[in-house]
Every structure is written in C-alpha cells, then in structure tokens.
Design goal:
elongated; 14 strands; Rossmann fold; 7-stranded parallel beta sheet; 11% strand; disordered N terminus; alpha/beta; 23 helices; 3 domains
C-alpha cells in the first residue's frame, strides 16, 4: 500500500519527484493529492512562476513545499560537496503562528533528507537566537516580512546571490497588513532570476498590481473545490442581537453543534465575554488573545489540536504588531538595526493599525467540525478565511454565521459574500437556516440568569487574570519570583481564582427540549436499555413524591393516613410484649395496681345489682 502512495506523488513531473519526498508523503498517510496540489506541483517542477488562488484548507502549503524541497535537493545533488552553504529558498507568511506551522509542515517533508536540507524559522524567537541560526546558512528560511527586513538591515542574512525560490503565502493578507514597503525591500535584495510563487485564498486589486512586479510570465491557477477537498456546508441565521446568547446555549446543549468548535468574534473584549458565558454553561474553552506572547498563542493552538479542549474563541481583528522592539526581544541584539529606519517602520505600522495576529489567516487547526461566526465578519475576505478553518484536508465541516436582524450593513455584506461563494445545487451559499426562536424560548430564563454575571468589570478582570497568569508562567521572570516571592504572592490574589459557576447549567431539563428533538440528545452513547430502565426508575420515584407531582388525590391521601393509624396500636402491642419495652418505674407499677382495684370495684357493683 505504501508503494502505491509513493507512486501517486512520484508521477508528478513525469517521475522527477525525489523518492525521499515521496516516502515522507507516504509516511504522512496522504494517498490522493488535492486539486491545488495536482495542478500546482507539475507546473512548479517545470520552473514557472505561479499565481494561485485556492480556498483555505485545500493543501496550498504542501503544494509549494514539495517543489521547493525538490529544487533544493536537485541543486545540492548537482553542485560540488565543497560548495559554500547558502540560503536557497525564502518563504514569507503573514504571522508568527503561521510561520511556526509552515516550519513544522516542511520539516515533515524533510524526514528522509534532514541531514541534507536544513530549515530555519524567523518567528517568535529573539533576534539574537535567530542570528546564530542564520550563521549556519540554512537552505530554507520561513519568516514574516517584518522580521526578514530587520535581518537584512542588520546584515545577518544575504539573499542576493543564492536564492532560487521565493514564496509568498497568504499574499493577499500580507499586502493588506501594510507590508508593501517591506516586500519591496525584500524583492530588491533577491536575484534577478528567481522562481516565485504567490499563494492566496482571495484575489484583491493590490495583489493583481503586485503580481506584475514580482512574477515573470506566470501561470495563473484559479481553483474551486475538488473531489479530494473538504465538503463545507455554509449556513446563516438571522437573529436579534439580544437572542445570540440564547441561540448559542441552545446549539451547545441540544448538541446541534458538536466536536471541535471555533467561535469568531470581532474584538478581544467580546472574546472574554463569550469565554465567561461558556464557563457559566460549564463549557470549557480558551481564548486566542493577541495581547499574549506568541509562545502562549502557539501553546493554545497545540492544546486545541491535541483535544485538551474542544471550544476555541478567536478574533481576526486583534491589534498586535510585528514590531521588532517587542517585549520578547533582547533590545541589545537590535543595536545593529538602523534606529531611524526601525522607528519609521514601527510608526507606519501603528498609524495604519495593521494586524499581525489573526486566527483566520492560514493557521491549521486540526479536526475543526464547526466554525460559528458569533459576530458577522468585517468583509468578504475575512469570511473566506474564517470558514477555511474547517473542512480541511478532505474532511467535512460546517460554517454557521449569525446575521443581526435589521442590520443593513450586514445584509449587504451577506449578498456580497453569496456572490463570491460557489452555489450548491443552485442554492446560494451561505444558505438560510430556518430557526424559530419560539421553540427555545423556555431556555431564556436560564440564559438571562447567567448573562447578568458577565459584566464589564468581570470581562476586565478576566483579561487581567490571563495577563497575570502569563507573568507567573514567564520563563524570564522565574528567577525574579524566586528572589522576590512577595511579588508572586501579590499576583496570586482573588483575580486568579475561578469565577462562580452554576453547575446546574451543565444539563438541560427534558421539559426545555423542543418536541422535535426529544430523545435525540442521548443517542450514540451508552446502553439504550439501561438508560430507559434508569429513566423509568426516576419517573416512578418522582411520581411517588407528592412534592413533585399533583397526581395524589384526596382518597389516596386518606387511605394512606388510615393505614398509618392502624399501624400505631399494633406497634404498641409489640412494644409491650417485648422485654425491652417493660418499664420498672414506680409509676407504672402503681398504675397497674390502681387498674386492678378499679376493676375489682366494678365487679363488686355488678354483683350487688
């Protein structure tokens, strides 16, 4: 079977694909290439520049990674062993998270040739650490545009003579982030002859203008979903803003959405509000917060992918900048970078308010079953990247968007989104999901009860809690806390204690479940017969409890009282016959003698008569 897998990918480029790459692909378990891979790889192996538009999750990373590694292997095979090591491929991505993800993906392709081909990521590490890695002249460099420009200014990297392949992944997002000046600086440092790939989920006017600058007679691939791509179902629900919490509670507790769920909102504050609300529902979740360090964000992504928790709340509108003067950097290591240039780039980035962090952009979350847009996306491009977090790698997925009733802006944007999405069976996507709020109206009192606890003060404290937790877990501050235990004790205040959770919200009473969904929640788990027996016992116990039912009639109650009254005298007789019940008190003996005397007097009177 493994030979068949290798053969499938070896056929690319008429057998020109290196066997070590084929073996690595077979080891990963990939059998059939996706549509973008089957179209992209043969053209790339011929040395042409390519502009590719394919939806997120369609396999673009492996599409450009395979020919990139192949070209490096061929170059090393044809050159003298004593040749100087050099950087042969540069891959640009918009965020540090995606930088690390791409680095790991290419490492998997290098499983059988890691001793020949080396790779380096310029993501979340300090500049000093990256400079040491660059001194080894790795064959492939994965970086964000801002960090690569910083190293060019610091003269810790040279691209002019050796780079053979240049890749810009999520090119539309890189341009929208305001990296145009950085890209121009990088391109000016590249060789005149260099194979270039532009990968994007959407095509924008900026990208169309940019491709004429960086691409030479490119092949243009505009691809829709293929047979091996995931099956994505798209829906929207029109609902009042005040009913969103109610609908969310119903979706989770009625198990209308299940598995791994990714929630999108439009601000960090909304992230924490939703997290606190889910905690009241006894639903464990996490927030991908742009205010946290990149290592913490990567850790949250890894935990989600491992299944430690199944609900992740994110935003694609978080203002965090790819600034080389961040807290995670060692400022002493940046002295080689021109201060004026660094200040200029930092000011331009802040003035433009461009985002460096965004979950919706390229990050590969494994096994996401459903994407729920609690807040409507800002534009069509944001919607495309959001829903691309599910139905990846051939899996099926669902995208549900909540449309605020009465919002003309969101209604107009929905029409724009439907005009860009491919129709399914003649129906525009996303399609309306019929929902009657009256069917879940009975749950409103529960939702309102807990929603009052999610105040602005609670949200502020939740954000403060995570920041304090990051301080406590910071490796750089561990030594400080050891020398100053009082500082750590101050952080361990009441704000780090979990909020009060109403555990009764974890279950949904049967009387609140809509009639159409009665009996569906327990399907697929445990023994049905055992559950029915347990349910019968509970109902019987409940029916016999007069505090939980009104089925007790006056006749039943009087019969029960009569039965209890008849039982009392018998209990007295048994007590008298028992030795333990005989009293030795003087009062008892006197009473017995007194009774005998009374009886004697009665008999005497009867005789006289």
């Amino acid at each position: 079977m493994s030979l068949d897998k290798e053969k499938l990918f070896r056929e690319f480029g008429e057998g020109l694909l290196d066997s070590r790459i084929s073996k690595a692909i077979a080891k990963l378990g990939y059998i059939h290439p996706t549509l973008v891979q089957s179209k992209f790889i043969p053209i790339a192996l011929k040395g042409k520049d390519i502009l590719t538009r394919a939806r997120t999750g369609s396999g673009k990373t492996f599409a450009y990674a395979v020919p990139t590694v192949q070209k490096v292997l061929l170059s090393k095979q044809n050159e003298d062993e004593s040749a100087k090591r050099s950087i042969r491929a540069v891959i640009l991505v918009p965020s540090k998270e995606l930088c690390h993800q791409t680095f790991l993906a290419i490492q998997q392709l290098l499983y059988y040739c890691s001793d020949i081909v080396s790779i380096c990521e310029l993501g979340g590490q300090a500049m000093g650490v990256q400079k040491v890695q660059l001194r080894e002249c790795p064959d492939i460099v994965v970086s964000t545009p801002g960090r690569l420009v910083a190293h060019i200014h610091a003269k810790s990297i040279s691209l002019k003579e050796t780079v053979e392949t240049f890749v810009i992944d999520e090119a539309d997002m890189i341009l929208s982030f305001g990296y145009k000046n950085d890209l121009d600086r990088i391109i000016s440092d590249l060789p005149n002859i260099c194979q270039t790939f532009l990968m994007s989920a959407t095509l924008s006017p900026e990208l169309d203008d940019f491709r004429h600058v960086v691409l030479h007679k490119p092949a243009i691939l505009k691809l829709e979903g293929g047979d091996t791509d995931g099956n994505l179902a798209q829906f929207f629900v029109e609902i009042d803003e005040k009913d969103k919490d109610l609908l969310l509670y119903a979706l989770l507790k009625l198990k209308l959405v299940s598995g791994r769920i990714l929630f999108f909102v439009n601000s960090v504050a909304r992230c924490y509000r939703l997290k606190l609300l889910l905690e009241q529902f006894v639903v464990r979740s996490a927030v991908l917060n742009a205010e946290l360090p990149v290592r913490s964000r990567q850790s949250i992504i890894e935990q989600f992918n491992k299944g430690i928790f199944d609900h992740l709340i994110a935003t694609d509108n978080s203002l965090a900048y790819d600034d080389e003067d961040s807290d995670e950097e060692d400022e002493d290591e940046d002295t080689e970078v021109d201060a004026a240039e660094r200040k200029r780039r930092s000011k331009e980035t802040r003035d433009a308010k461009k985002e460096e962090f965004g979950v919706a952009r390229g990050i590969d979350f494994r096994g996401v079953n459903t994407v729920v847009n609690i807040d409507f996306p800002a534009d069509e491009r944001s919607y495309t990247h959001r829903i691309g977090r599910t139905a990846r790698g051939g899996a099926a997925g669902t995208a549900l968007t909540l449309l605020t009733r009465g919002s003309a802006t969101e209604a107009a944007l929905l029409e724009e989104i439907q005009s860009t999405q491919a129709e399914v069976d003649g129906v525009k996507q996303p399609q309306r999901l019929p929902l009657d709020v009256a069917e879940i109206e009975g749950m409103r009192y529960r939702v309102n009860d807990v929603s009052r606890a999610v105040t602005r003060v609670a949200i502020k404290e939740a954000r403060l809690q995570e920041l304090k937790q990051e301080l406590l877990n910071s490796e750089k501050l561990q030594e400080h806390f050891q020398n100053n235990p009082h500082d750590a004790a101050v952080l361990h205040d009441q704000h780090l204690r979990p909020a009060s959770i109403k555990h009764h919200m974890a279950t949904l009473p049967d009387y609140l479940i809509p009639a159409a969904l009665q009996g569906q929640n327990d399907r697929g788990s445990g023994s049905g017969r055992a559950k029915r027996r347990g349910g019968e016992r509970k109902r019987k116990k409940r029916d016999e409890d007069p505090l939980q039912t009104f089925s007790y009639s006056v006749e039943k109650l009087s019969n029960a009282q009569s039965k209890a009254a008849r039982a009392r005298p018998r209990a007295k007789v048994i007590a008298r016959q028992s030795e333990a019940g005989v009293s030795t008190a003087g009062r008892r003996k006197w009473k017995e003698r007194h009774d005998k005397q009374i009886k004697k007097k009665r008999r005497r009177r009867q005789r006289r008569k």
